[in-house]
Write a structure and sequence with these properties.
- The chain is 17% helix and 25% strand.
- By secondary structure, the chain is of the alpha+beta class.
Length: 157
């Protein structure tokens, strides 16, 4: 996704550094797009920093880390359902963790920021940065989707 952001930024002449490699712009090819001003108006400053600038919230600060009711975790940017509570587990990392997203909810890309190679997870509908996925999760997938709670909302069912 970083390469796509770079190319789009160069083509539109709006290249600008964000918290990650390049901040998201309104020129993204996603179903839900907004201008930077619209995102800032819609989201809290912390949600904007995480979702639109690829930031990370401090561990153990999200109420969603301790959410144990049955329900659905959705994107705070566009309300797309992302994860079922049935796939949530306590990873001990301080961020809400899941072993599987809902079908066609997220996309991934290579993240080489901060001298590391990780797999970034973002909302497939609005492109919002959600967190990263690692290969140290529980069965049945062995994956740990380590998500920023501020990037999601929760609705109990």
């Amino acid at each position: 996704m970083q390469r796509r952001r770079f190319i789009q930024a160069m083509l539109t002449g709006t290249a600008s550094l964000g918290m990650g490699a390049f901040g998201l712009t309104g020129a993204q090819a996603f179903e839900v797009t907004r201008t930077d001003a619209e995102w800032k108006k819609q989201l809290s400053p912390e949600a904007y920093r995480v979702l639109r600038q690829e930031g990370t919230e401090r561990p153990f600060t999200s109420p969603l880390n301790d959410e144990h009711r049955k329900g659905i975790f959705s994107c705070a940017g566009c309300a797309l359902p992302l994860f079922s509570s049935t796939t949530k587990f306590d990873s001990g990392t301080g961020w809400p963790s899941f072993y599987r997203p809902l079908d066609k909810a997220v996309e991934t890309s290579r993240d080489t920021s901060y001298g590391m190679v990780r797999t970034e997870v973002h909302c497939r509908r609005c492109g919002g940065h959600l967190g990263h996925v690692f290969n140290d999760g529980p069965p049945p997938t062995g994956l740990r989707y380590c998500m920023n709670g501020v990037a999601m909302t929760f609705k109990a069912v």
